[in-house]
Specification:
By secondary structure, the chain is an alpha+beta fold. It contains nine helices and four strands, in the order βαβαββααααααα. A four-stranded mixed sheet has the order 2-1-3-4, with helices on one face. α1 links the parallel β1 (2-5) and β2. α1 (10-21) runs parallel beside α3, α4 packs antiparallel against α6 and α7 crosses α8. The radius of gyration is 17 Å and the shape is globular. The two termini are 24 Å apart. Glutathione (GSH) binds next to α1, α3 and α5.
């Protein structure tokens, strides 16, 4: 299995966590998102992922893109340990928490979006950071409320073992700090992050632990 990844990419971080949780060995093919204008934009990588985004996973000659699709593929192929609950309502809840991050927050503070906002609307770095902070804050506030509102909260977003929700949440917190968000008001989220990072699967997937880390 080969993961096209960038150490600082939070979507790649998600897949690295899932691979580690399931003890799946894999090789890394680093794609630098800034070097030379961005290796993701080069023809060689666009042949792998026409969206010019990391991650992409190569397995048995197939190339998979979109971190959530990749993680669900891993969940089906390697069901142990599970990262989704079995009850349909619980599963929908975990997916909805994951999607707060993956569908609503992350896409609008992604590198290409921020670059576009900056260049097209002539914004300063401070203004662009403010944009990122706004959307991250909105999502984290909702997630903090969702975590507190359900009865199955344990050490993690849902229950006492990590799920897809934690896999999406933890990498997003790195982005939140990078853009200067104040996380102190999210007590549950910070406690969950601490519990996740105590697990080797999360710790080993962290950006600074990757071979391409700068
Ligand atoms: N929805 C995609 C998002 C992938 C994505 O946005 N990746 C970012 C890094 S976290 C990227 O490759 N950005 C390159 C760019 O913005 O040019 C997924 O979950 O895989």
């Amino acid at each position: 299995m080969k993961l096209y990844t960038f150490f600082r990419s939070s979507a790649s971080f998600r897949v690295r966590i899932a691979l580690n949780l399931k003890n799946i060995p894999y090789d890394q093919a680093p794609i630098h998102l800034r070097r030379g204008g961005g290796e993701q934009l080069m023809a060689a990588y666009k042949a792998i992922n026409p969206q010019a985004l990391v991650p992409a996973l190569e397995d048995n000659g197939s190339i998979l893109t979109q971190s959530l699709a990749i993680i669900e593929y891993l969940e089906e192929k390697y069901p142990q340990p599970p990262i989704l609950p079995t009850d349909p309502a619980d599963k929908a809840l975990v997916r909805s928490m994951a999607m707060v991050i993956a569908c609503e927050v992350h896409p609008i503070q992604n590198l290409r979006v921020l670059n576009y906002v900056k260049a097209t609307y002539n914004q300063t770095d401070a203004q662009v950071n403010q944009w990122a902070q706004h959307w991250i804050d909105l999502g984290l506030a909702a997630l903090e409320q969702m975590i507190g509102a359900q009865s199955k909260r344990g050490k993690f977003c849902f229950g006492d073992s990590p799920t897809l929700a934690d896999i999406c949440l933890v990498p997003q917190l790195g982005n939140a700090r990078r853009y200067g968000c104040d996380l102190a008001k999210y007590a549950s989220i910070l406690e969950i992050e601490k519990n996740c990072m105590a697990l080797p699967a999360f710790a080993a997937a962290a950006p600074e632990k990757q071979p391409d880390a700068e």
